[in-house]
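Archive entry: two folds, one per protein. Generate the first.
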Amino acid sequence: MSSMQRDNKTTVSEFLLLGLPIPPEHQALFFTLFLVMYLATVLGNLLIILLIRKDSRLHTPMYFFLSHLALTDVSFSSVTVPKMLMDMQSIHKSIPYAGCMSQVYFFIWFGSVDILLLTVMAYDRYVAICQPLHYATIMGQEKCVSLVSASWVYGSLRSLLHTLLLVRVSFCDDITIRHFFCELPVLLKMSCSDVSLNEWVLFIEVGVAVFLPFITTVGSYIRIWATVLKNPSAKRFFKVLSTCGSHLLVVSLFYGTGAEVYFFSSPSISSNKDIAASVMYMIVTPMLNPFIYSLRNRDIKQALKLFVTRMKYCSSNNLI
């Protein structure tokens, strides 16, 4: 690590990552496990995108949003997991300053888009169930594109705000990050300069970027179940559960593991429990999403069967 002293502030060229708290004798096992999980995340989500793109029956608002959620999940995991896997095979676990700031930027960006897309998907289900006669009008192609575009643009602006505030912060001699990636709250705790502005912006902005979408999502499902209970029937109940169950499970996993890290974490810089929760929402949840949607979704399973049949047909023709 190289550094220079200027105006009593330390300018760092790199940070040291402690990585996952795994005993050396178990490193190989966990490396294999996380590599398989990451490959499953990438391949599973890319398969979802491919099926939605190729099958015209899936060219609906719900699957349009799902394809962008799958893209976001791949991107979200790719921000941290490849670097984590490299560090598990390396002795000197360092990350350049610019690389650390990039991790913060893209982590916030893709995480923000994930939250907004889950909210948009809840709104889509609300319109489909509570206002079915007006669904085609409300959720037109232009509206869907606008909602997705707004999610990506807002996410990028939000991450840019926090990254610009972070680069003005100076760090002390201790540049060891007790985590496996550069996380904004951890970096702010490591700083030796005044970070009150960063903390206030983070506190206020999180209320808008996280709590508002969460309340909107919960509100959408309250309206959905209120509508269902007005005219209760077993058939309607199971139809709604089939339509919304996958999304509810994904929302619960994402918000549940995220809350464990950011709202119920220990006061220390980063505990083993917090790191384990981070692994859950950055590796496990994006990996499970394709399986959750495909196993509980008849349309996705039919599209997969058709895709496999076409691949077999093409392969047999090529062999002739």
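Generate the second and append.
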Amino acid sequence: MIELSNVSKTYKAGNKALRNVNIKIEDGEFVFIVGRSGSGKSTLIKLLLKETEPTYGKITVNDFILTRMPRRYVPKYRRRLGVVFQDFRLLKNKTVFENVAFAQRVIGVSPRKIKSSVPEILQMVGLSSKYKFYPHQLSGGEQQRVAIARALVNDPEILLADEPTGNLDAQNAEEIMRLLEEINARGTMVIVVTHSQEIVKRMKKRVITMDKGTVASDTKKGGLTYEN
């Protein structure tokens, strides 16, 4: 579960990025966060990643209270998150297999475990046959699948996807969203930040709309108002 209680964020320049935000997301939900540039979406993601701190309020993610968490616990907390970005952020000099394996090597997973888990996750994202390919040999959609595999290989409780289809054409975008829906069906909470109203309308999931640092609306499937 994720819960933000009366969260505000004001940057040093005086920019009020978030104003008294209250959001509750239950385990296993699929949620879109939408809004114009400057609405507070990026700040919200940074707070969940603990890249920045709120000025006021409380943030709870499962059994972690982020606003009270010592810095030494942040790496442990982040291991429970999977993160996917618009620009893929793959290591160009490493193969598909090595890119995914890297996420496990940095936390000390054994070579034996890596040898079994990476092929499993590549099969799930449909890239088993391209494990020896380098990023430049893949399409944009395939590169994003590698990024998703890397985000999932450590079995995170929550997947944060920041504009995951921003650099993709319509067909690849639809395939990536279908993959995220499959991941959600397996029990992972999925939070997608996007500008694409077309995707949001087609997926028919819960939608949180941000505007000028506030939650302008929060709707369930079918457009009903969501009640925490």
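Annotation attached to the second fold: The CA atoms of residues 12 and 202 lie 39 Å apart. The longest helix spans residues 170-185.
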